[in-house]
Design goal:
Blueprint: H1 8-20, H2 26-51
Helix pairs in contact: 1-2
């Protein structure tokens, strides 16, 4: 079983900010949310649209496949 490590920073960051700094300003929360959006939304979208566009192994890559072929993974 593969443990999905991607959500650890999401929950750990929230837990630590909430418990360690209960009276924290909204600036820290904005930075936290911006970092999560950047890491979990912007970077994957940009890498898939720009990085995978001209990749020679795009047809055999499970991360670059179309969502219409989602059930036909080539592992």
């Amino acid at each position: 079983m593969v443990f999905p490590y991607w959500f650890v920073p999401l929950f750990a960051g929230f837990y630590l900010i909430y418990n360690a700094y209960p009276d924290v300003s909204s600036t820290l929360w904005i930075v936290y949310i911006a970092t999560m959006v950047d890491g979990f939304v912007l970077v994957p979208v940009v890498s898939k649209t720009v990085g995978c566009k001209k990749c020679p192994t795009r047809d055999s890559c499970p991360w670059a496949e179309d969502r219409s072929k989602a059930g036909k993974r080539h592992f």
